[in-house]
Predict the 3D structure of the following.
Amino acid sequence: MSEKRTFTMIKPSTVAEGVAGAILVLIQEAGFRIVAMKITQMTPQQAGKFYEVHKERPFYNDLVTFMSSGPLVAAILEKDNAVEDFRTLIGATDPAKAAPGTIRKLYAKNVQENAVHGSDSDENAAIEGFFFFSGLEQF
Ligand code: UDP
Ligand code: MG
């Protein structure tokens, strides 16, 4: 995966609300091309691995339970400056601090159920993308 790509998940509570399609429209209207996408569910063990970097944080166990609680939409997105521009589009982790018009401001319920994931670096975008998609599934 090149530096023009980032990885996202539409989180389980947000998929359950039926707004994944609306969020994908916002993502595409912001100029991101979807180069891989699937609906899938992580086991607790897989969610624990995905968020391993946070394992010492107080919210880790709840986060793992939440992220494995139901199906999510995983996708790889392509755009110039993808990682930074996507973080801008989604807004701050805590929706109370997210800028107006951002996806989290529009769709997050709270700091945990904050609608979407976005990679925080090119390196993590590649690691996270390959966690969900083989090379043959990335277009
Ligand atoms: N999270 C939480 N409580 C916190 C901080 C984070 O439940 O105080 C959850 C939230 O779902 C967040 C995820 O853990 O999206 C990963 O946290 P991170 O700091 O990496 O935020 P992000 O990169 O998603 O903005
Ligand atoms: Mg993060």
